[in-house]
């Protein structure tokens, strides 16, 4: 967790992630850093989408000190469960760390598998990404500046249009995560 001063209480890059095979079954573990070193090793991750009562989705701009894809807009929260850790439990903890809040309930709606090379670093995402959704009904956001530089609520249809028009402003997984969570908003026609 970050201390709020930009210094992590734990070196997140040394934490273990769960490696998985092409069907999502656990096959071992390694450090976050090793999993993301090119070529990236397929590992379990999660992406959280939070909605408000009117259906808007919460976006965060990743802090400039983030190891991968800094400064880009993304979903509310991302992370990696420890080997054997419950995905929803891990996501709930990470949501509190990054945004100072939790959703009433997080529900897994599917998996998005993707690979993405970070153009600024010699690192690669190769993730079996569990997509979780929740509704934030009360409580103020308190983003950790070591994780999040800003937040905004966006209409999902407007977000899809922006992702199509300016994809380089967003993390490479965001569109796929949205498609898993709300496919009716991202279909052509």
Automatic annotation (TrEMBL):
Residues 41-176 form the Nudix hydrolase domain. Gene3D superfamilies: Nucleoside Triphosphate Pyrophosphohydrolase (3.90.79.10). It is found in: Cytoplasm. Keywords: Cytoplasm, Isomerase, Isoprene biosynthesis, Magnesium, Manganese, Metal-binding. GO terms for cellular component: cytoplasm. Its cofactor is Mn(2+); Mg(2+). Mg(2+) binds at residue 98. GO terms for biological process: dimethylallyl diphosphate biosynthetic process; isopentenyl diphosphate biosynthetic process. CDD domains: NUDIX_IPP_Isomerase. It comes from Nocardia mexicana. This is Isopentenyl-diphosphate Delta-isomerase.
């Amino acid at each position: 967790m970050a201390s709020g001063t930009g210094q992590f209480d734990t070196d997140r890059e040394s934490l273990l992630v769960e490696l998985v095979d092409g069907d999502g079954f656990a096959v071992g573990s390694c450090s976050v850093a090793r999993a993301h070193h090119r070529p990236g090793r397929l590992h379990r991750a999660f992406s959280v989408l939070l909605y408000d009562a009117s259906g808007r989705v919460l976006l965060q701009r990743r802090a400039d000190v983030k190891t991968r894809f800094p400064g880009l807009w993304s979903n509310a929260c991302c992370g990696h469960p420890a080997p054997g850790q419950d995905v929803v439990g891990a996501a709930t903890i990470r949501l509190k760390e990054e945004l100072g809040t939790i959703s009433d309930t997080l529900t897994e709606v599917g998996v998005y598998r993707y690979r993405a090379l970070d153009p600024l670093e010699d690192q690669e995402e190769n993730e079996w990404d569990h997509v979780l959704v929740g509704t934030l009904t009360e409580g103020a956001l308190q983003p950790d500046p070591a994780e999040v530089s800003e937040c905004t609520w966006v209409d999902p249809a407007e977000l899809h249009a922006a992702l199509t028009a300016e994809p380089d402003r967003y993390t490479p997984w965001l569109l796929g995560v949205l498609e898993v969570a709300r496919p009716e908003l991202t279909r052509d026609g």
